[in-house]
Specification:
Elements: E1 7-12, E2 17-24, E3 28-36, H1 38-42, H2 49-71, E4 80-86, H3 90-107, E5 111-115, H4 116-122, E6 135-140, E7 145-152, E8 158-164, H5 170-180, H6 187-195, H7 220-235, H8 242-268, E9 272-276, H9 283-296, E10 299-301, H10 305-308, H11 313-324
Parallel strand pairs: 1-4, 4-5, 6-9, 9-10
Antiparallel strand pairs: 1-2, 2-3, 6-7, 7-8
The protein binds 5'-O-[(R)-(carboxyoxy)(hydroxy)phosphoryl]adenosine and zinc ion (ZN).
Length: 341
């Protein structure tokens, strides 16, 4: 099968971004089109699943056509259609999946269902030609916080979950804290910006590290700590500085992520680290991880912010490996709200 430079169309609709992209040979991005629904969901303070599905349905055909046009690629040029099959909002995932199935059937092209978290890890391949397994990946997104070992296969055919959050994902904690501070949705970028004007040592929020040697995470304590602090200050009619709270919360989160990653690197001996997922767009986290890695002789690979948050280039990249292996799905492929790595 011809796979060198194969053209893969990627489709991503698992949350509130309708995205389509075309990659050549997995890693060369020919187009990366993203229609964000942020403005639609902002008024509700979070993603409303039914509204997300409806907007995906309205946008997806235009976004896919745009991705082909920007790539200068015709339908017949495509070698495979890759699509996020989960985990995600199941009604939203279904829209991308139905679109991909329709295209695969009509064009007679292979269909490849992609795991969303594996796709986030693959985002690191897009701009780093020299990246190859084995490596450690810290995945920080709105729905996941995981430490993953990738031992073989560009798209991580061999991955091992080393640790994951036991309660809130880190992005979820950012979004909830932002809401308590009266900031907009999504909260991550708002806190990132506000924290730059605050003192990270102003309030000491408890860093939850769980049992000795554990690579799991827990962020609900930090989140509740911020909520309690804000409510106590308000009840006592005491002023508080939102920028200081944002910076202190972020410092606690970054400290925990840094410590768990240090432990994972120590336990596994990996010398390459991938930082990915929406929260990897965070400026403080990127800076801290770079500093940590420089001090430990570990090479850090972080996608540009546009490839950290949801996009379809990462889906096409993950689909490329499956395509190379002839690992195709049929038209009965399901959408999954939850999906093991
Ligand atoms: O990966 P992603 O786009 O979607 C999921 O798969 O969940 O991640 C979205 C999450 C949201 O919680 C958002 O607040 C967070 O990523 N995020 C950030 C930043 N940009 C996006 N968090 C902190 N700092 C940022 N700059
Ligand atoms: Zn995501």
């Amino acid at each position: 099968m011809r796979s060198e430079g194969a053209l893969i169309l990627g489709i991503e609709t698992s949350c509130d971004e309708t995205a389509a992209a075309v990659t050549a040979g997995g890693r060369t991005v020919l187009s990366n089109v993203i229609a964000s629904q942020i403005d639609v969901h902002k008024v509700f303070g979070g993603v409303v699943p039914e509204i997300a599905s409806r907007h995906h349905l309205e946008a997806v055909n235009g976004i896919v056509s745009e991705a082909l046009a920007q790539a200068g690629v015709g339908w017949d040029d495509l070698d495979a259609i890759a699509v996020t099959k989960g985990p995600g909002l199941v009604g939203a995932v279904l829209i991308g999946l139905a679109t991909a199935k329709g295209l695969a059937f009509a064009l007679g092209k292979p269909l490849v269902g992609v795991h969303h978290i594996r796709a986030h890890i693959c985002a690191a391949y897009l701009e780093h030609e020299q990246l190859a397994p084995p490596f450690l990946a810290l995945v920080v997104s709105g729905g996941h916080t995981s430490l993953v070992e990738v031992t073989a296969g560009a798209a991580g055919t061999q991955v091992r979950l080393l640790g994951a959050t036991r309660d809130d994902a880190v992005g979820e904690a950012y979004d909830k804290v932002a809401r308590v501070l009266g900031l907009g949705y999504p909260g991550g970028p708002e806190i990132d910006t506000l924290a730059k004007r605050g003192d990270p040592a102003a309030v000491s929020f408890k860093r939850t590290l769980l049992e000795d040697g554990s690579l799991d995470f827990s962020f609900s304590g930090i989140k509740t700590g911020v909520m309690n602090y804000v409510h106590t200050q308000k009840q006592a009619d005491k002023p508080f500085h939102a920028a200081d709270v944002a910076a202190s919360f972020q410092q606690a989160v970054v400290d925990v992520l840094s410590e768990k990653t240090r432990l994972a690197l120590e336990q596994t001996g990996h010398r390459r680290l991938v930082l990915c997922g929406g929260v990897a767009a965070n400026s403080a986290l990127r800076a801290r991880m770079q500093k940590d890695c420089d001090g430990r002789d570990v090479t850090l690979f972080v996608p540009s912010p546009v490839y950290c948050t949801d996009n379809a280039a990462m889906v096409a990249c993950a689909g490329y490996e499956a395509f190379q292996n002839g690992d195709f799905d049929n038209l009965e492929l399901d959408a999954y709200a939850q999906l093991a790595l």
